Structures are given as C-alpha cells and as structure tokens.
Amino acid sequence: MKKPKFQCPTGMHDILSGDQEYYQKIFDVARNVVSFYGFQKIDTPIVEQAELFSKGVGLDTDIVEKEMYTLRTKGGDFLALRPEGTTPVVRAYLEHGMFSLPSPVKLWYFGPFFRYEHPQAGRYRQFHHMGLEVFKEKGSIMDVRIMQIFYNILRELKFKNIVININSIGDNKCRTQYKRLLINFLKSRQSGLCANCKKRSKKNPLRVLDCKEEKCQKIISNAPQFIDHLCEECHEHFKGVLEFLDEAGLPYNLDSYLVRGLDYYTKTVFEITEEVRGVSANDEDEERIQKKPLSLVGGGRYDNLVKLLGGKDTPACGAAAGIERIISVMKEKEIKVVSSYSPKVFLAQLGDSAKKKSLRLFEDFRKAKIVASESFNRDSLRDQLKTANKIGVDYTLILGQKEVLEGIIIVREMKTGKQQIVKFDKIIEVMKKKLKK
RNA sequence: GUGGGCGUAGUGUAGUGGAUAGCACAAGAACCUGUGGAGUUCUUAGGGGGAGUUCGAAUCUCCUCGCUCACCCCA
C-alpha cells in the first residue's frame, strides 16, 4: 500500500462510521442511566494548566512524569492535554463555586483524553472516558452507588460477567503507617524479590503487591494486609462499602492488592472488569485465559483532592470508564449496535417528472421522521433496486411516469417482493403504519 | 523508555532471489432507460519509505516510518 504522506499520529485513530455507532450507543446509554441518578453533564477544555495535573494527580505518578502532552502557548502559559478527567472537574467545581450547590454535587463527562505512552491492547494516546464525580458526600453509600451506576450502564450494554474488584487504601494517616510496615517487611526479604520489585520496594512499595512474578507472589502472600491496618475511620467506611455492596446485590471481589496509580485516591478504590468467556483450552488460548482482563472502569474516593487544589475540605468520589475498552469487549462478545439512522425506505424514480416529485417526497419523509434513502444519480430501476437491496431497506417505493400521471406510487416489500399500489398523497401515512409494525 | 511479531490494491490474502505480482470480496461500468439478492464481461487499484547485497529483490541485510503485542503503568 502506498502510504499517504500524512497519517494519524501514533496511537491515535480516526473513528469511522462503523465505530461511531458504538460510541453513540455508549454515550446514549450512559446519559440515560446517569441522568436518572441526577447527574449534570460538564465539559471542560481539552487543555489545562499543566500544573493542575502535577499537583492533582501527583508529581511522581507515571501519568504526570512521562505521559503528559505539554505545550507552551505564545503567551507563555504551560498547558497540558488532559490525561484524566477528575482533576479538571475539581478545578471547575472550585472555579464556579459549586460548593454552594445543594449537596451532593453530581457531575458527569464524556470526552477525549490524552496520554503519551506506547499503544497496545486497550490503550491509546487518545482515548475516551465517560466519568462521574460526586462532591460533598462522605458516606460510603455514595461509593457503592457509583459502582452501581457503572454496573447498570454495562448491564444495559449487555455485559454479563461483570466483576467489581474493590479495596481500600486508607487515608494519609494509615497509609503512611502501612507503607512503613510494608517497607520493613520487604526489606527483610529483599533477596527473594524480582529486580523490578527491589526498586519498587522503597519508592512505591504498594506496587509490589501487584507484581505477577511468582517469587514475589510467594512473599506477598505473607505480607501484612492493608485491610488489617486501616485506621478506625477508614475501616468503618470500608465496612460500610461492603455492606452496601451486599445490599445492592452487586458482584464484587475483594482484592487486597488493588492499588491505583493516581495519588489522589483515599479509602475506597475499585475497578470493574468483564470476564471474557473462558475459551476452551486450545494450546494457543491458554495464555489468554490466565491473563487478567483489562479494567473497563476505574475509580474511588478522593477526599483530599479538593482541598489540595485550594478548596475547602470536601469529600468526593468518582470513577471513569474507558470507552475504547468497552467497545473492544463488545466486539469480542459480538454485542451488536444498530443505528437508528439506518434507512428503512428507498425511493426509486424513473423519468424526469418522477425525479422531480421524488425530490419533494424525500423531504416529506424527513419531516415525518422516516429515514429514507435514494439514488437519484441512477436512472435504471434495476440499479436502484440493487442499491436498495445493498442498503438493506425494508421497503422500496417506485415512482415512474405512469405512477405520476395516475397519482399513485408502488410500495415494494423487499423481503417478499410483494408490491402494493398506494395513492401518492397517502404514502407517508401508509409507510408510518407499516414501519410501526 | 525496553523487548517480540508484522507491513503486498479499499478490505482480506497468495507468492521465501527470476518473466505481465495471483486470488477473493468491495467499488465503478456494460449486458439491461420499468423491477433487487444471481450470472458473465470489462475497469479502477498493490509489496510503507530509503539505502545496500545481486546480473536480477515483495522475498536477503541495514536504517527509518507505521501497525501490533508485551514489560512499566493505566481506563
């Protein structure tokens, strides 16, 4: 293939017509569900002050350290393409004084995000998130409701094996204590760890818990569990979350090694995955079965973030779903989406007078909200029927010289080939009825 | 940032040093200016780019670009 001179930047994609339907479907489902729960939509700019993210997400996180697209404006501002949605929403919350809105303040968003990283399965440099943020609500019930909302969205998208992995990473107080405990534990077992974890054990010990290396796993299984070392407040909160989860009947899985890479999380963290059907054990597929499914939704509580960005002490929690990941599971599971804009009726015309009349008739269909299609550039009836067939309409309307003179039109049902003569003036009405069935 | 695989018409592919690079689908046209799903015929269109080895390269080597998968990390 001769590659054109210009192509999409690495890790970014044109979203073509086929995929548009998926994005649209997910957006529609999300909006319906989320509106029911009283969320208001918010759109923030694609770029923000870079400092917002280094402060909010954390300077030492990978996202800020190496994955941000940054730019200097002519005026000298240092901006970044947004790598995630929570921090900008918090910024907007503060900027517009939303703390004086009745609590809880519930916001949602849908849009593109950018991270400069190596693309691979389910990760792109430009991707889409649909996310929720709730402010001024400290009760553990809100944590669970957010999970419930995403669960419902996924259910509505026909996901069947949804699992919520959940953990608590405490607050600043008990986390530092636990970290110390863990570092000490790991120090005594340094030699048994993989090279990677040796490095991590000092700087980011929580990450070691997540290591897949077998030898590390063995050590980890004896490590002190965070859950046993939560302070009383966090413990109570987590207990509440679990109780509400039970009450809501949501399928969850306690994952004491679940740690998230963004600094702002406190207490509850969770991820939602869909178990992709266990392929029967072909040799090739064996690896795939063992692989952890990509998480579709990630989120948690961030009680310190609002204050960190200059607001009052405000409890908050939220989560975001990766649209591309959801789409890829939908495709894998062959979950189909149908466009509401696929045409149901095709207008075929023969001869000049018929063509002129068709032009008007086509507009009448639009007004009647019946999606119609045509091929006015073709003159042969045969070709027009061929096209109608390819498009897959239910009915083709045939209008020729003779019909125009007699004030009628032929309705051909494509499936059966049966034809019916209808008065031209009544055609919209008749088609409305037919399509209702 | 590190490592593996890959790159042939719009799409999916064949061809592992030799002649006009083959096939399928898609697209367009004709058979056929009043009835589709089929058929036949024709048309459009191809080795990512660059360098090298060679009498000769889609095929071998190097560089580069891109895709993909994995590590890291994340949605």
Describe this structure in words.
- With 437 residues, the chain is of the alpha+beta class.
- The chain folds into two domains: 17-171 and 231-332, 2-Layer Sandwich (BirA Bifunctional Protein, domain 2); 345-436, 3-Layer(aba) Sandwich (Rossmann fold), CATH 3.40.50.
- Helices cover 40% and strands 20% of the residues.
- It has helices spanning 17-36, 50-56, 62-66, 86-95, 140-156, 172-187, 195-203, 205-208, 214-220, 232-248, 286-290, 305-308, 323-332, 352-367, 381-391, 401-406, 427-436, and strands at residues 40-41, 47-49, 70-72, 78-81, 105-114, 126-135, 162-168, 252-254, 266-274, 297-301, 316-322, 345-349, 372-374, 395-399, 408-413, 419-423.
- The strands form three sheets. An eight-stranded mixed β-sheet has the order 1-5-6-11-10-9-7-8. A five-stranded mixed β-sheet has the order 13-12-14-15-16, with helices on both faces.
